[in-house]
Amino acid sequence: xxxxxxxxxxxxxxxxxxxxxxxxxxxxxxxxxxxxxxxxxxxxxxxxxxxxxxxxxxxxxxxxxxxxxxxxxxxxxxxxxxxxxxxxxxxxxxxxxxxxxxxxxxxxxxxxxxxxxxxxxxxxxxxxxxxxxxxxxxxxxxxxxxxxxxxxxxxxxxxxxxxxxxxxxxxxxxxxxxxxxxxxxxxxxxxxxxxxxxxxxxxxxxxxxxxxxxxxxxxxxxxxxxxxxxxxxxxxxxxxxxxxxxxxxxxxxxxxxxxxxxxxxxxxxxxxxxxxxxxxxxxxxxxxxxxxxxxxxxxxxxxxxxxxxxxxxxxxxxxxxxxxxxxxxxxxxxxxxxxxxxxxxxxxxxxxxxxxxxxxxxxxxxxxxxxxxxxxxxxxxxxxxxxxxxxxxxxxxxxxxxxxxxxxxxxxxxxxxxxxxxxxxxxxxxxxxxxxxxxxxxxxxxxxxxxxxxxxxxxxxxxxxxxxxxxxxxxxxxxxxxxxxxxxxxxxxxxxxxxxxxxxxxxxxxxx
Length: 512
Fold this sequence. Notes:
Blueprint: H1 4-10, E1 14-17, H2 45-57, E2 61-66, H3 76-83, E3 95-96, E4 117-120, E5 125-128, H4 143-158, E6 163-166, H5 178-199, E7 204-207, H6 217-220, E8 228-230, H7 232-244, H8 248-256, E9 265-269, E10 276-277, H9 283-293, E11 300-301, E12 305-306, H10 310-313, H11 318-330, E13 334-336, H12 396-400, H13 406-418, H14 421-425, E14 427-431, E15 438-445, E16 448-455, E17 461-464, E18 472-478, E19 491-494, E20 499-505
Parallel strand pairs: 1-2, 2-6, 6-7, 7-8, 8-9, 9-13
Antiparallel strand pairs: 3-5, 4-5, 10-12, 11-12, 14-15, 15-16, 16-20, 17-19, 18-20
């Protein structure tokens, strides 16, 4: 609650909270013991209600994690299920007398688990778990389980949340069989949408679904399922483009996305709280990204991903970092920033698996980075306290005092994006250029358009635009003070890792 003014000042309009439920924390809080309470280490329900009131007063919508693919093994439902095979809770989970064959690709944590079935001595049977063995899968095909999910959603909607980020959606129906999987999932997502709409018509559902583009229509439906979907496909291709310093992978990704209902949208991101997952691209492409951004073994995880934040991946190059976030905000869809992105936080590769990118926020150069006054040993994860990304060198307080800091630059970027409804509402178009490193595209809406150019290469260039719409240009944002381009030029100069944003008034012809 104390930092809501900071978020509001930054321009944040929606806040996604990771799990805060009581949990033994085998999986960073995603192993839930009680869906109707707050982990006492974080506060109370009273604290949450107070937080919601403060957020709403500042115009900040709040999304929370809906983690109903599985529970903790310590959840009362599972404890009742394992002790009594006749309990109604037995059917809340998926059991088998003998573990069946399974596709190793179904293991979410292949470095840790070797099976999706675990034998329980008390139950005398195997239970299904696609994640850690301490996270038994819920049986979504059971109407009683779906009714429990409805109650959970209604509870938090009543407390004012604006929607849910639905965790691990593709795994919710893995137990029903491949042939029926998509039909059952679609029906379930439609039910979730109905639950939300009945309680709060303006609430949204955001699906975490790392799936190929051709499967994404299952999650959107006909505007009757998920409102938002993480754009994992574009995210992977964006890093391939950064590795190659060529725009083609991003162009291919945008053209490869299916048409979605007008009331739905993609959520774009650079990094989030998990690894940079590269599992849906070719092995050769994955190796290119590994070579460029994770050359050492401890920078990788699960054989498919990178456990680093962006600044260390780009070797701290301020130009490259700003180019990447300019690109994020210019792409069609909604941009997502993770805490610490705005100040260029780093990672701690000495920590295990995903903990490397989940270090505490660095607010100041004071004790524990201003995150907490507790003893360092009491922190949920160690602070980054040494090196170029230590809190003494990277923190909010210092960057707020410097006009040219990444924090103040991100603030300008957010404000600019809010002034460009063309990107969010308009139709996007790729522009051909004679420079392979330059991504040029514009988004058109209500007679106006926003044109952006991003040079993914370190060398400067001058990009010729071959099919640019006619209209007067107004430069909105750039990596430096370029010469004014009016009337519209045949070529646009760009520095290495340079970017330029223009508004085009399509109703006003240019003078050339």
